[in-house]
């Protein structure tokens, strides 16, 4: 009788996070199947708490109640605007430079704009990029998200006085699956030999 295969180890990743390198190392080292699951920032904790994900690459902050989380790296916030926008002539901008601009997708920015900058209905990042490409409004997102939705008719510039966002690796405190420690070891750069020890 063939050995029973274990359930896939499911790792979520928020939009913009890139788990491919770690997944490749996992697949070279482990016989256990690994499944990568894209999640939105709004749903990044839900999968962990309902048990549909074993771990998740999340964009901080997250509710740490019942969760372990290792911060991994920071992301620079950028403004995305139409290619003819004034920000295109700068290497970087500040929030003062963007004063009075219409912010197309407020919840993506980590910045609380004034009430007169909030005239847009909810939309996806892809739709927001399309709006700003048409020359209307601006979008502020982490650089990885801007790269994911890059188009030739938009520009992106760092916003120097906004704090960076952080990507972290999160899992439930009571998840005792040994594969959790294996994946942590891979993310932290442990060799196959050291992770076995």
Give a verbal description of the structure.
The chain is of the alpha/beta class and 197 residues long. The protein has 2 domains: 9-74 and 165-196, D-Maltodextrin-Binding Protein, domain 2, CATH 3.40.190; 77-158, Periplasmic binding protein-like II (D-Maltodextrin-Binding Protein, domain 2, 3-Layer(aba) Sandwich), CATH 3.40.190. The chain is 22% helix and 25% strand. The protein is built from 6 helices and 8 strands. The strands form 2 sheets. Strands 2-1-3-8-4 form a 5-stranded mixed sheet. A 3-stranded antiparallel sheet has the order 6-5-7. Strand 1, helix 1 (20-29) and strand 2 form a beta-alpha-beta unit. The longest helix has 10 residues, at 20-29. The protein is elongated. The two termini are 31 Å apart.
- Large-scale geometry: elongated
Strand content: 15-25%
Helix content range of the residues, please?
A: 10-25%
Radius of gyration: 20 Å
Largest sheet: 5 strands, mixed
Show unreliable segments.
Answer: none
Named at the architecture level, the CATH assignment of the largest domain is 3-Layer(aba) Sandwich
Q: Could you give the distance between the termini?
A: 31 Å
- H/E series: EHEHEEEHEHEEHH
Looking at CATH, which topology of the largest domain would you report? Answer: D-Maltodextrin-Binding Protein, domain 2
Count of DSSP strands: 8
- At the first level of CATH, the class of the largest domain is Alpha Beta
With strands numbered from the N-terminus, the spatial order across the biggest sheet is 2-1-3-8-4
CATH superfamily of the largest domain: Periplasmic binding protein-like II
Structural class: alpha/beta
Q: Tally the helices.
A: 6
| Oligomerization status of the protein chains | single chain
> How many structural units, i.e. domains?
2
Mean pLDDT comes to 88
């Amino acid at each position: 009788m063939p050995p029973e295969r274990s359930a896939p180890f499911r790792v979520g990743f928020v939009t913009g996070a890139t788990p491919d390198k770690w997944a490749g190392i996992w697949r070279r080292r482990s016989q256990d199947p690994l499944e990568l699951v894209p999640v939105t920032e709004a749903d990044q904790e839900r999968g962990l708490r309902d048990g549909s994900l074993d771990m998740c690459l999340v964009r901080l902050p997250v509710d740490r109640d019942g969760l372990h989380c290792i911060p991994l790296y920071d992301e620079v916030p950028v403004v995305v605007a139409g290619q003819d926008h004034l920000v295109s002539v700068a290497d970087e901008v500040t929030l003062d430079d963007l004063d009075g601009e219409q912010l197309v997708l407020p919840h993506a920015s980590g910045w609380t704009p004034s009430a007169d900058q909030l005239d847009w209905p909810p939309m996806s990042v892809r739709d927001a990029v399309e709006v700003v490409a048409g020359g209307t409004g601006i979008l502020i997102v982490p650089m990885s998200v801007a790269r994911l939705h890059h188009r030739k008719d938009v520009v992106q510039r760092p916003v120097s006085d906004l704090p960076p966002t952080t990507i972290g690796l999160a899992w439930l405190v009571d998840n005792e699956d040994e594969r959790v420690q294996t994946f942590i070891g891979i993310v932290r750069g442990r060799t196959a030999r050291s992770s076995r020890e």
